[in-house]
């Protein structure tokens, strides 16, 4: 037999081989198996402890300690008392002997193992545990080890992560709470010792010069000036902190030696964790907080950063800024507590005073730099911003009206702190704080009778903030920062919704500039909700000034060889023009965003300003198109893209104002005279504006404009066609020309689709009631001819010919997709229109829809066309179902069912992992969902076939698949089928309505049971999305139809469902859904609580492996019979926790152990 030394050498060889670069994955798995088998041996802990004591290999040490950890957590109960004592004493002795030389991660692991033992044994079988830990603080050699122990105790005993019984958890929390005063006192004395050790070198920070200027900040209102003025409340608050004569919080520590810095950092870390779970109470003394704030002030001192850069602190384990970060972390833990005892509020106020002294220090100017913040550690600034966020979100409401807390001066400091930030992320954090503050103001206004007084108190602050944000997004004021941001503009056109051209995506593909601008603009919009007139004026003025310069640029153009050139080439003029154009584009987006301020009740009183804005925008659009500024030659290339961007943004901004124009056309401005005659008081204005916008949109389509401008013009045209319905469009020459040239207006197929949709809308959508002549017959005739112009080719396809000709199928696929796509979007836009418009459009496209149905079997193997056909039919069923008629609907659905079921296309599509084919199946299921939701009797005949399709053709294929593809729409369909066709299974009768008969009678029982079994099976699989979806489906059915109370469910399935859900809780396979699962168990158990407590719990425990009879009895007796939801939830959590604990303990016992 190999000696321990030989075994250690073999283990070191295995570990080195495992982590070697040349080791294959196969060999690693072999080594893992060897190591796992070794760790499961009885008595492996003895060898592990020997190896730890005699190896210098960190891999071996960590493996052995991890093995011992598993033994402590899973086999401790099964060890003999002398074995437990040997493990505990050996580990503790090894820590004492090696804590200074062992790597920190080995030391921390050893400490955790001792604390793990205490978690199971203290105080009953390890009475001197806490005494030993506290004794470590008496010696300088072991004081750091003591702090590590204290933090590990807080982490592992306050909220134990491993399986423990509920009673033991409660006991540990109670025992540990009794030790909290001692722990806090010890940590306070340790931090005080660090301060006292260096107090002779402490110097006070001189106050800022009263004449020191803040020239780095742009001109603001009086809020931007320093609030620390002689005689103000805030200056009195900060007086003692700044002077350094009456309180030690004003001191600044010099650089600490390595030992002191280590003690301080470990103590602050430990305090942070303690603060995360102990309640706010008198245990947290002012003395302790003053000491923490003293360390927090280190992060606000640039001198420490300079010392580090000069090498003064290079040998220290933790820098001065890091101590500041740790201290702020401890403060933030206290700030995050929303439940504050009334007698603690004065204490909090003192904390805020201390923190805002740091804030005042942070925004102080430094010589030879624009901002003190740029000299500080970024992580410290992040922590401080987090404090500000917590203060505003959690505590501001407590102190807003406190005479001892000057809110306006605080906002002044926050303003300066915000606009002195040196990084975009730090600035965004500050904007989040302001956003929370604005939400707070909005909530106050909603609950107040006097809106004016609430807003007027903060008027100067909000106006200063708005001006600061506006300066932040303009190159004229912030060029250095903005030029560093990526400014890619997407030219991709969106067909599905109406958004600005540079809002194509809000995900990771968005440019840095877009993200930066949007964040600022949305905060500006929040301010405008509180002060609409003032904020709009602040934005309007610079936009109007920039627009005037833009509209005068033709004076600087010259003709050269038939081409126009911008005669601006001076070195300083081109950058100025670049800044002007970029800022103009930004201001245009702001003007568009604020169009919502003019809607609804505000429309009449602000209509004059709105008309001025629209006229100016139309003027800019016509100017840009008329002079073809996108073709003008420039001295530098960047100006060309700037002109294109401005032109495109003008059109997008006009599009944002289309909603206002549509409201101006509204029925509230219609006057009805005797006899039924109607007039609109703004009709002439509406028609004029509509015409101007139409001209601006159509003029860019035939002048060779870049794609970005064309896209924006087409989107504006489409918006006008949908939202502003009037005869103006059909009377306009430019629009009439489009009907002739629509198919050739652009090489971009998406542009052509949008133009066709807009032109159809002009003819199809109803005009307002005040229009005298609606010209219905003329519009119908033109609409029919126009739709035929781009659908005739599809309607003329010979189905038999194309079915036999593969090349013809490929050649026509693109045409089919384009045509069906246009019709699909157009049908979608009819969703909120009148019946006449739907019937008119259906009469024009019914042949196309019928052709799509006939082509489906032909293209069933062509996923793209197949998906487009099904997408079209989904929208048709949603919008034109009545016009289609029950006979045609039945024939359509039967066609799809026949194709999918008779040729096994469903199974093939799902099993081949083809994403396009899967999307086809999902579209088909969505179509069926619409059908089974219909209340009409004619659609009920599809229910049996739909259930057969789902349960016999689709479910068997997807049930065992890990991926959620098809599963989600399949269960959505089943849920919808049950919700809308409950009577198919549970049919009421006259006898039932009179109180006689069997309320639980069921029809089609076999199908119902199959569906329920599918839901139940999904709870045994790992997909959390499907699990949650189906859990909500069952709860919805129970809420509407008392599903759990039905005899068929109650008698044969209820117990199975509860069992499965409880097993999920036991095995922790869906931990994120614990609350939802417990609520569902409660609702199921509430069907018959007596049976649940008396019979089910016992039956569940009897069938649960890994428990002894006495343990089963204990679990059953401890499961209280409360029937209210909160208490039931707690009881279930305790029941599951104790059950897991017993199973863990039993698994650790050696075979043959008698369980008492």
UniProtKB/TrEMBL annotation:
GO molecular function: nuclear export signal receptor activity; small GTPase binding
Domain Importin N-terminal: 31-97
Region (Disordered): 200-226
Amino acid composition bias (Low complexity), ranges on this chain: 216-226
A Pfam match: Xpo1
GO biological process: protein export from nucleus
PANTHER family the UniProt entry points to: EXPORTIN-6 (PTHR21452)
Family to which this protein belongs: Belongs to the exportin family.
Official protein name in the record: Exportin-6
């Amino acid at each position: 037999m190999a000696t321990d030394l030989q075994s250690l050498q073999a283990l070191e060889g295995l570990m080195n081989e495992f982590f070697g670069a040349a080791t294959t994955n196969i060999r690693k798995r072999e080594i893992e198996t060897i190591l796992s088998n070794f760790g499961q041996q009885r008595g492996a802990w003895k060898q592990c402890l020997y190896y730890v004591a005699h190896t210098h290999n960190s891999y071996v040490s960590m493996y052995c300690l991890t093995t011992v950890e598993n033994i402590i957590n899973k086999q401790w109960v099964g060890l003999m008392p002398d074995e437990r004592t040997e493990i505990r004493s050996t580990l503790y002795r090894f820590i004492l002997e090696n804590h200074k030389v062992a790597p920190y991660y080995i030391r921390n692991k050893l400490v955790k193992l001792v604390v793990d033992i205490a978690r199971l044994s203290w105080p009953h079988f390890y009475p001197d545990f806490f005494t030993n830990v506290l004794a470590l603080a008496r010696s300088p050699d072991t004081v750091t080890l003591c702090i590590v122990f204290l933090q590990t105790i807080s982490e592992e005993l306050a909220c134990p992560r491993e399986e423990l019984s509920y009673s033991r958890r409660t006991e540990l929390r109670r025992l540990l709470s009794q030790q909290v005063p001692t722990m806090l006192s010890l940590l306070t004395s340790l931090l005080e010792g660090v301060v006292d050790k260096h107090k002779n070198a402490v110097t006070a920070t001189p106050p800022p010069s009263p004449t020191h200027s803040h020239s780095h900040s742009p001109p603001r209102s009086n809020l931007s000036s320093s609030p620390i003025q002689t005689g103000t409340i805030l200056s009195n608050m900060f007086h003692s902190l700044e002077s350094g004569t009456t309180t030690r919080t004003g001191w600044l520590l010099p650089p600490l030696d390595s030992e002191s810095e280590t003690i301080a950092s470990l103590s602050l870390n430990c305090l942070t964790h303690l603060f995360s779970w102990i309640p706010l109470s008198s245990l947290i003394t002012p003395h302790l907080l003053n000491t923490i704030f003293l360390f927090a002030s280190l992060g606000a001192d640039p001198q420490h950063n300079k010392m580090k850069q000069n090498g003064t602190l290079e040998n220290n384990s933790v820098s001065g800024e890091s101590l500041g970060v740790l201290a702020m972390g401890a403060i933030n833990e206290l700030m995050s507590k929303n439940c504050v005892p009334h007698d603690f509020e004065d204490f909090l106020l003192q904390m805020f005073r201390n923190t805002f002294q740091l804030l005042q220090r942070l925004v102080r100017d430094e010589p030879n730099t624009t901002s003190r913040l740029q000299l500080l550690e970024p992580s410290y600034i992040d922590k401080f911003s987090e404090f500000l966020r917590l203060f505003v979100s959690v505590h501001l409401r407590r102190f807003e009206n406190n005479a001892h807390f000057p809110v306006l001066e605080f906002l002044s400091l926050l303003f300066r702190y915000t606009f002195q930030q040196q990084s975009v992320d730090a600035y965004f954090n500050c904007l989040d704080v302001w956003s929370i503050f604005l939400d707070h103001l909005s909530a106050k206004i909603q609950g107040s009778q006097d809106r004016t007084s609430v807003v007027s108190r903060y008027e100067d602050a909000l106006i200063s903030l708005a001006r600061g944000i506006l300066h932040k997004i303009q190159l004229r004021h912030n060029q250095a920062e903005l030029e560093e941001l990526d400014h890619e503009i997407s030219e991709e056109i969106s067909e599905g919704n109406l958004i600005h051209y540079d809002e194509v995506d809000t995900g990771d593909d968005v440019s840095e500039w877009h993200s930066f601008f949007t964040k600022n603009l949305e905060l500006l919009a929040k301010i405008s909700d509180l002060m609409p007139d003032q904020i709009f004026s602040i934005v309007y003025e610079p936009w109007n000034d920039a627009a005037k310069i833009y509209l005068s640029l033709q004076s600087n153009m010259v003709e050269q060889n038939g081409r126009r050139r911008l005669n601006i080439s001076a070195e300083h003029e081109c950058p100025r023009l670049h800044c002007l154009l970029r800022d103009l584009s930004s201001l245009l987006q702001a003007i568009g965003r604020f169009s919502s301020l003019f809607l609804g009740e505000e429309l009449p009183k602000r209509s004059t300003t709105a008309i001025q804005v629209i006229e100016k925008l139309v003027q800019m659009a016509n100017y840009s198109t008329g002079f073809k500024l996108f073709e003008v030659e420039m001295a530098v290339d960047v100006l060309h893209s700037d002109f294109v961007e401005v032109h495109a943004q003008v059109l997008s901004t006009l599009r944002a104002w289309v909603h206002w124009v549509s409201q101006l056309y509204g029925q509230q401005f219609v006057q009805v005279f005797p006899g039924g005659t109607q007039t609109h008081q703004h009709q002439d204005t509406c028609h004029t504006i509509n015409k101007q916008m139409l001209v601006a949109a159509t003029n860019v389509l035939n002048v060779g404009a870049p794609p970005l401008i064309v896209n924006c013009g087409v989107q504006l045209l489409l918006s006008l066609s949908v939202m502003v319905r009037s005869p103006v469009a059909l009377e306009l020459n430019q629009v009439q020309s489009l009907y002739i040239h629509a198919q050739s207006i652009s090489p971009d197929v998406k542009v052509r689709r949008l133009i066709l949709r807009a032109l159809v809308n002009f003819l199809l959508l109803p005009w307002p009631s005040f229009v005298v002549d609606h010209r219905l017959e003329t519009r119908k005739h033109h609409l029919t001819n126009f739709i035929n112009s781009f659908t005739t080719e599809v309607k003329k396809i010979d189905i038999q010919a194309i079915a036999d000709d593969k090349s013809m199928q490929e050649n026509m696929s693109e045409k089919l997709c384009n045509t069906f796509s246009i019709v699909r979007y157009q049908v979608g836009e009819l969703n909120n229109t009148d019946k006449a418009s739907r019937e008119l459009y259906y009469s024009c496209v019914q042949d196309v829809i019928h052709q799509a149905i006939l082509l489906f079997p032909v293209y069933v193997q062509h996923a793209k066309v197949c998906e487009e056909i099904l997408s079209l039919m989904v929208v048709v069923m949603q919008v034109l179902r009545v016009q289609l008629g029950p006979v045609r609907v039945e024939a359509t659905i039967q066609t799809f069912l026949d194709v999918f079921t008779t040729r096994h296309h469903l199974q093939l599509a799902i099993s081949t992992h083809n994403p396009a084919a899967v999307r086809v199946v999902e579209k088909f299921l969505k179509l069926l969902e619409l059908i089974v939701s219909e209340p009409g009797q004619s659609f009920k005949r599809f229910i049996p076939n739909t259930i057969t399709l789902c349960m016999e053709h689709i479910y068997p294929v997807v049930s065992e698949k890990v991926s959620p593809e098809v599963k989600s729409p399949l269960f959505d369909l089943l849920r919808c089928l049950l919700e809308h066709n409950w009577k198919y299974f549970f049919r009421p009768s006259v006898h039932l309505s009179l109180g006689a008969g069997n309320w639980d009678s069921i029809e089609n029982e076999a199908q119902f049971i199959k569906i329920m079994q599918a839901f139940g099976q999904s709870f045994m699989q790992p997909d959390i999305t499907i699990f949650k979806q189906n859990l909500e489906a069952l709860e919805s059915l129970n809420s509407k139809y008392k599903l759990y109370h039905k005899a068929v469910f109650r008698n044969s399935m209820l117990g199975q469902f509860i069992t499965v859900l409880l097993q999920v809780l036991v095995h922790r396979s869906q931990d994120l859904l614990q609350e939802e699962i417990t609520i569902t168990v409660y609702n199921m158990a509430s069907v018959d609580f007596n049976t649940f407590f008396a019979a089910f719990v016992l039956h569940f425990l009897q069938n649960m492996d890994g428990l002894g009879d006495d343990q089963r009895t204990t679990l059953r007796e401890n499961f209280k019979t409360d029937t209210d939801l909160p208490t039931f939830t707690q009881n279930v959590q305790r029941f599951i926790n104790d059950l897991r604990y017993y199973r863990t303990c039993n698994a650790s016992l050696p075979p043959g152990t008698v369980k008492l």
